[in-house]
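Researcher: Please predict.
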Amino acid sequence: MARAMFEYTKTVLKKVSFNTELFCKELQKAVQRLLPYEIEELKIWLQEYTANKPELYVCMAIVK
């Protein structure tokens, strides 16, 4: 089930990426819910996903 939560988190983040504030809120929720190794995977995914979305860089501080 933990893997399902990770995939769900990525789906939600993709859907709210149009709004920086929502993206940051959902990312904060994800950090609270995911397991430590999933957070590490999320960091890698975020680096790739936000590569062309500089407006979302401010949210990266949440996972660091």
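Model: Residues 2-63 form one domain.
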